[in-house]
Design a protein that fits this description.
There is one protein chain. The chain has a six-stranded antiparallel beta sheet, with helices on one face. It is globular. The chain contains three helices and six strands; from the N terminus they run H-H-E-E-E-E-E-H-E. It is α+β, with helices and mostly antiparallel strands.
Length: about 120
């Protein structure tokens, strides 16, 4: 049906992410909030709950902790999150991989590791 109205799957997916992943502009939802939330997560690979799904998450540090990468795959196969965070003297910089920053922020702030 989307083909009939000229919207490709990728464009539609981006539109849906953009519309559904907007979060309020709150002080606790920026790169520094993500940086703080990441510190509470274990290093390495772990299972966690976020956004109503179970995820397999890998958190890795680089350059002595000055940068880190988080990659997560929903275990039901329907979703994927990937991001890098750089801890700079001027503040944290969040670099999502091919997805809106709001989507990554919402995921990281909602993520709870399984014990």
């Amino acid at each position: 049906m989307l083909d009939r109205i000229g919207i490709s799957g990728l464009v539609w997916q981006r539109l849906v992410f953009t519309l559904t992943d907007l979060i309020p502009n709150r002080p606790d939802s920026g790169p520094d909030a993500v940086a703080d939330a990441l510190l509470a997560l274990p290093l390495g690979t772990f299972r966690g709950q976020a956004l109503g799904k179970t995820w397999l998450v890998t958190r890795s540090l680089f350059v002595g902790g000055a940068s880190e990468k988080l990659v997560a795959h929903a275990l039901d196969g329907t979703d994927y999150i990937s991001m890098n965070l750089y801890r700079l003297a001027s503040g944290s910089r969040l670099k999502p991989c091919e997805m809106p920053a709001a989507r990554v922020v919402r995921f990281v702030l909602d993520l709870v590791p399984e014990t």
